[in-house]
């Protein structure tokens, strides 16, 4: 008989413990309503960005990658003549978005403009140059071991820019599968906060 009542007693204790925990969370939520509302809003915006609308809709953008050293930036959606050195957010639409990583299509990428229309891109082995200045070295493969080819030598055409992150692991214009970025895909210019 003891063996039969023992599991029932353990189940009752487990349910009582869970009920006490739920009452504590509810009481905390009532006391700290603003904190719970803020966290709920952040999660709602994050889920909206991931599943519904990929481009930034808030004036602040958080960067979780090592592409650039800035973690928080202010987004400027105003009219913008783009210049070398500008930090931009653009909707990724490179060859890799179609072939290798369809989940990246139209995802916002955060990079710095290194080359503008009329600049000459040359490649020596895996080293990439713009107007004769070394701007980076193309890696041989991605983190998941897919081969990477450097960008083909070209003159940047009107309506396009060459973008690059500060990290050696940044997926940017150094690679043929990412390529030059159309200025039509640029969503906004950004200014670093942190």
Q: Describe it for me?
A:
It is a single chain. The protein is an alpha+beta fold. It folds into two domains: 2-51; 60-192, Ribbon (Umud Fragment, subunit A), CATH 2.10.109. 27% of the residues lie in helices and 26% in strands. The chain has three helices and eleven strands; from the N terminus they run ααβββαββββββββ. It has helices spanning 2-31, 33-51, 95-98, and strands spanning 60-62, 72-76, 87-91, 108-115, 120-124, 127-130, 133-137, 154-155, 160-164, 181-182, 186-192. The strands form two sheets. Strands 1-2-11-3-4-9-10 form a seven-stranded antiparallel beta sheet, with no helix packed on it. A four-stranded antiparallel beta sheet has the order 7-6-5-8, with no helix packed on it. Strand 5 (120-124) and strand 6 (127-130) form a beta hairpin. The mean pLDDT is 86.
């Amino acid at each position: 008989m003891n063996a039969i009542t023992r599991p029932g007693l353990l189940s009752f204790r487990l349910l009582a413990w869970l009920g006490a925990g739920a009452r504590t969370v509810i009481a905390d939520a009532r006391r700290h309503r603003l904190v719970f509302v803020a966290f709920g809003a952040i999660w709602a915006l994050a889920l909206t960005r991931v599943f519904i609308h990929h481009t930034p809709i808030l004036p602040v953008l958080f960067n979780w990658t090592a592409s650039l050293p800035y973690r928080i930036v202010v987004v400027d959606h105003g009219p913008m003549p783009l210049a070398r050195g500008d930090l931009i957010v653009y909707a990724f639409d490179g060859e890799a978005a179609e072939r290798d990583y369809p989940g990246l299509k139209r995802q916002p990428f955060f990079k710095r403009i290194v080359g503008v229309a009329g600049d000459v891109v040359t490649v020596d082995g895996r080293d990439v140059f713009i107007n004769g200045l070394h701007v980076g070295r193309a890696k041989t493969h991605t983190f998941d071991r897919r081969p990477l080819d450097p960008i083909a030598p070209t003159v940047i055409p009107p309506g396009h820019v060459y973008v690059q992150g500060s990290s050696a692991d940044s997926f940017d214009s150094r690679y043929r599968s990412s390529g030059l970025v159309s200025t039509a895909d640029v969503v906004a210019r950004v200014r670093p906060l942190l």
